[in-house]
Amino acid sequence: xxxxxxxxxxxxxxxxxxxxxxxxxxxxxxxxxxxxxxxxxxxxxxxxxxxxxxxxxxxxxxxxxxxxxxxxxxxxxxxxxxxxxxxxxxxxxxxxxxxxxxxxxxxxxxxxxxxxxxxxxxxxxxxxxxxxxxxxxxxxxxxxxxxxxxxxxxxxxxxxxxxxxxxxxxxxxxxxxxxxxxxxxxxxxxxxxxxxxxxxxxxxxxxxxxxxxxxxxxxxxxxxxxxxxxxxxxxxxxxxxxxxxxxxxxxxxxxxxxxxxxxxxxxxxxxxxxxxxxxxxxxxxxxxxxxxxxxxx
Length: 297
Prior knowledge:
By secondary structure, this protein is mainly α.
């Protein structure tokens, strides 16, 4: 057993327990914690990023859902996927089990998330999704503004890819591609901050090159025909995720754009009361002190 595996399994157990309690904020935190701890390990430990990544995907899916009825409907599908991740999270990660779990989860989730109108109008057309993504990759990979301080093209690509997959379904190759681009988007959210710092030192080309290296690897992979267990794609995914957590260590969570993403800390009623009483007493003391000072004058 590697030195870090036991610790990561504890992170996984915490994330799984949070999922069982429908605490998807905690699940997301524990998934991030797992991936952060991987960074402290050896080069051979990077494969353990995979379970953490997919736990985060599930947590974010549920955090984004506004309809409680839909959440309840897709929960059994997510439970099956979390079980598949657990089964594959061995010391020698079973990538086949985890990727197949992801493919199944994505397809069944898609069926539940389609509206009644969409479900009636659209037929599964995975070939059209592949055609659309082929166009998008050719269009965006060669765009000079893809990796830039104010670039939003990667986000646009993801939105279009998500729409295609949601309405028409997708082959496994396209789902792996979406996973790689999603992870790269997490890195890209730090790029604006990194550019701002690099411009002061005249080192902005290095930041662009950091993102370009992953884009080139993804583009090369997408032009190939790798099959499950997707060892090549997984290696790219893990490298991207390591870089993402390294950016986190440098910039923390300054990439968050919405206060809704910040976890709200609820204090127990008694604690709130004590804080209120303490503040009231401090204010009263301040008033008394000022009155005494005025009388002395």
